[in-house]
Amino acid sequence: MYQETGSEELVEQILENYQTTVKKLASKMARDFHLVDDLYQVGMLALLGAIDKFDSEVSHNFDAYAVSTIVGKMKHYLRDKTWSIRVPRTIKEMGYRLQKTIDELTVELQRSPRIDEIADKLEVSEEKVLEIMENKGNIHALSLDTPMKADNQEQDSHTLMDMIPDQDPGFLDVDRKMDLSSLLEDLDEQQRQVIHYVYYEEWSQRQIGEKLGISQMQVSRILRKTLQQMRDAYVKNSE
């Protein structure tokens, strides 16, 4: 209904209905507690994108599509925040010292310490503290085999991989076989712009409409027509 009407009230209802799910995913995937809020924001933005991009002609299971999209975006965020390569021992040691100092000052001051207070305690410059903070979050890569914490226990037998649902075969088939470059050549300029903004810039239909000077409903119709045109061309080329 939202894709057909563009109703702000409907999208707000969808976002509200999925808030708890996004919060649980953020909590379970966060390596450190301070990442939970960031992952929640990433998840909500991913949900917005899923609402706009979901195609009922490919799959009728929006829950699976939304969760898969949210988890994927969270994984990308975590990957951007971590290193998968070996880092110098000195960086790790500075990270441990930094965390210990923050914990000690938090207890001592009964609040979160400021950067200058942390720098004084470590006897380094404020710039060095910021550098250590930046490097500290890039030491450990998050594995899909990482055990998840359940709501009522410290740890359960599930891993992050268990959170990723099986995708509809249609998505995998399109992702694996479709030659996008040749299909895009058959589109007109407006169609290519809509596809670009939706799938490469991840803009909402409302943003695209404002950019192109057309209504959100027109964007939806162009997108639906373009996707069908690309599907037909793909089937024809596969024969």
From TrEMBL:
Residues 16-83, 96-159, 183-231 form the RNA polymerase sigma-70 region domain. One of its GO terms (molecular function) is DNA binding. Pfam families: Sigma70_r2, Sigma70_r3, Sigma70_r4. The lineage of its organism: Bacteria, Bacillati, Bacillota, Bacilli, Bacillales. It comes from the Bacteria. Keywords: DNA-binding, Sigma factor, Transcription, Transcription regulation. This is Putative RNA polymerase sigma-B factor. GO terms for biological process: DNA-templated transcription initiation.
